[in-house]
Amino acid sequence: MDDGLRKRWLEAIHNDILSPIYFSNVENFPYNENRPFTPDYTKVAELRLKDFSAFSHTKAELREYILHIFYDLLDTFHIDVCKMQRLIYALCENYQDNPFHNFFHAFSVVQMIHSIGEHVNKYQDLLDNRERFALLISSYGHDLNHPGVTNAFMINSRHQLAIRYNDISVLENHHAATLIHFLELSGCDIFCNLSYEDQTYMRRLIIPTILATDMAKHKSVMENFDRTMREFNKENPVHRQNVMDMLLHSSDVGNPTYKFDLATVFSLRIIQEFNQQVIQEEQRGLPVSEFLRVGNDIKKIKQNQMGFIDAFIYPLWKLLCVHIPQTQEYVDAIEQNRKMWEELEKL
C-alpha cells in the first residue's frame, strides 16, 4: 500500500471529500492463468457456518475467504481470476478503519448472505445466478468509503455528498456509486465478459439493492418483501428485487443473530461509533443525535441493545423466517441474545 496515497486520502476526508483509492499496480496475486484458483473445501465448509467470526482472521485471510464465496460464479460468468482478486483487494482497501463500518463488517455481511444461500439451494428458488452474483457483490460493497457517521450527520454538516445526492440516502448513494466506479475500472471490471445487456442489468440490480440498506427504508423493505412473498413469482423481476433488498437489509443489521459473544463485539463497536459521532456533533455545533448518546454506562448499553432488537431486528428477521424458514436458527439466536441482555439488565 502507498502510505502517501492513503495519507492524502485521509486528508481529503477531513476536507469533506470522500474519493476511492484504486490500486492499479497490484499484480502479486496468488492465482493467475498459470496457477488457477482451486477452492479449499475446508474454507468452503467454514463459510457455511452461521457464526463465522471475521475478527479471528487477518484482512488477507478474509480476502481469500471472499474469493471462495464467489468460487462457483467465476466459471459461470467467465470471470478473470486476477480481476476478481484485484476487485476484492481494492474494495477491502476502500473501507475506512471505523469502529464498526469497516472491512470486517463488510465481510460479515457478504458471508452471512452466502451462508444463508448455502442453506436455501443458493437462492435458486428465489433468484437467478445473475441476481445471486449481484447480491453478493452488493453485500461486499454496500458500505464502501463509509465515514463512520449517519446520513443525518452528513446532511446537518452540509457535507458535499449530501449536496450531491440532495439529502436523499446520502451514504447509500455514495456506497453504490463507489462500487459501480470500481466495477467499471480497467483491472476491476469483472463483468467485462458479459454482454452489454447483462452488464447493464447487473448495474440495475446493484444500485437499488444497496440503496435498500438505508434504515429510512426499513419499513418499506419489509412491507414490499411480505407482499411479494405472499404471491411470489420468480418470473417477476420486481419480486426478485424485493427479495434481494430484504436479504441485504437483514444481513446488514444481522449482528444480533450471532452467538452472544460475537454479537456483543459488534454491538460495542457500533456504540463506540455512535459515541464518536455525538462528540463530533457537539464539537462542530451541529444538532446532537441524543438517541446515539449511549456512552459507557452498562445499563444504557443493555437498554440500547434490547430496544434495538425489539423495535427493529426481531420483527425484521421474524418476517424473513416466515417466508424463508431455513433462517429459523437466526431468529432463535436473536431470542437467546435478547434473554441474555435481559438477564444482564437484572444484575
Q: What helical percentage do the residues reach?
A: 55-70%
Pattern of helices and strands? HHHHHHHHHHHHHHHH
Overall spatial form: globular
What does the radius of gyration come to?
A: 20 Å
Can you count the beta strands? 0
> Low-confidence segments, ≥5 residues, pLDDT <50?
13-17
Number of helices: 16
| Quaternary status | single chain
Give the structural class. Answer: mainly alpha
Instruction: Compute the average pLDDT.
Output: 92
Beta-strand percent range: under 5%
Question: Roughly how many Å apart are the termini?
Answer: 47 Å
Largest sheet: none
Keywords: Hydrolase, Metal-binding
GO biological process, one term: signal transduction
GO molecular function: 3',5'-cyclic-nucleotide phosphodiesterase activity; metal ion binding
Organism: Blepharisma stoltei
Provide key terms for this protein.
single chain, metal-binding, hydrolase, PDEase_catalytic_dom_sf, 347 residues, 63% helix, 3',5'-cyclic-nucleotide phosphodiesterase activity, mainly alpha, 16 helices, 0% strand
Characterise this structure:
With 347 residues, this protein is an all-alpha fold. 63% of the residues lie in helices and 0% in strands. The chain has 16 helices and no strands. The longest helix has 26 residues, at 298-323. The protein is globular. InterPro entries: HD/PDEase_dom, PDEase, PDEase_catalytic_dom, PDEase_catalytic_dom_sf, PDEase_CS. AMP binds at residues 101-105, 143, 252, 305. Zn(2+) 1 binds at residues 105, 142-143, 252.
